[in-house]
Amino acid sequence: MGLRFRKSISILPGVKLNLGTKGASVSVGKRGMHYTMHTSGRQTVSVGLPGTGLSYVKTVSSGAKSSTKKTAKPLTGYRDGKSNASLNQAAAQELAAAQQEAANYTAYVDELKSLHKACDPEVDWRAICDGNTTAYGYEKLKDIAIHVLGGDVEAYYAAVERIQPYEDLRDFGSTFEFGTDASDFAEVQFGIMEEEVMPVIEVSVTQSGKLSQKDLTKSKYYDLLQDYVCSTCIRTARDTFALLPVNTVYVHAVKTMVNPATGLDEEETLISVRFTREWFEKVDFERIDPSQFMSLFECRMKFGKTTGFAPVIRLSSGQ
């Protein structure tokens, strides 16, 4: 606490000289009422009621000139036009980026469930044999066309090698393997690329325009996984029917999994299905649910909504 110095000197009855560290003052009056003039220019009047503790003090003149300029307080929530424009632009950009991210996510999920909607052009083997140079695949297939129509299995393998019907599915299935030993059916196996393909979060835009990312629930994850694998199976069969004059296509979806009995990685079949051309010619592939579509065919698939796929014994080709 700082020390303060003050001393009062009586000059005349009712008149006192007050000395302090910040200047001097003269008080005129008696107890209960007096008037004080300070060297700083401040003048005060004090009125009190003795014995009551009540008093009134009024400063007549402070003597000091204020150097502080009054400034208008900004209105709450107000910014100048330039600031508002910058903030609006930043908010709009953030919203646009969030919407684009959510749209990309939705488009990717839709693609996983819609692989079956696309298909390679159908090869008209008779037109190729007749020398129609506008027929799809004419240049690559003209020398084997007559052999394919004759049911030559080696010509089937040559057609697959030249056209590469599963090439545009490489991002969704690995190691496509084609096989057949008869003219009326074909068999295709592919590896499920769950870890490489499946999203583990869902992306959306909140009502406030912010990007939201949260983990997919087990049921949503496995429901999407089933649609993706089934859609790939259907697309594989469609491309095979479009290329070869076969009536049946077997498709096997496999995945390398740990055998709990041995602790070793083993290739397991998770879906094995026998598709027929007859049904494929009747279906509107734009409107089907890929997982439900499988029920129209002989299909081996063990699937749990919260557990996913379990291994099955695959169908024997030619059944």
CA-atom Rg in angstroms: 45 Å
Number of discrete helical segments? 9
Protein structure class:
alpha+beta
Tell me the strand order in the biggest sheet: 1-2-3-4-5-6
How much of the sequence lies in strands comes to 25-35%
Task: Summarize, please.
The chain is of the alpha+beta class and 319 residues long. It is built from nine helices and 14 strands.
General description of the model:
The chain has helices at residues 81-113, 125-129, 138-141, 145-149, 153-163, 194-197, 218-243, 277-280, 290-293; strands at 6-12, 15-20, 23-30, 33-38, 43-49, 54-61, 173-179, 185-192, 201-205, 211-215, 248-258, 265-276, 298-304, 308-310. By secondary structure, it is of the alpha+beta class. The protein has two domains: 7-54; 86-120 and 165-310, no CATH class. The strands form three sheets. It has a six-stranded antiparallel beta sheet, with no helix packed on it. The protein is elongated. Residues 1-7, 49-55 and 64-78 have low confidence and may be disordered.
Itemize the secondary structure elements and their pairings.
Blueprint (H helix, E strand, L loop, with lengths): L5 E7 L2 E6 L2 E8 L2 E6 L4 E7 L4 E8 L19 H33 L11 H5 L8 H4 L3 H5 L3 H11 L9 E7 L5 E8 L1 H4 L3 E5 L5 E5 L2 H26 L4 E11 L6 E12 H4 L9 H4 L4 E7 L3 E3 L9
Parallel strand pairs: 8-11
Antiparallel strand pairs: 1-2, 2-3, 3-4, 4-5, 5-6, 7-8, 9-10, 11-12, 12-13, 13-14
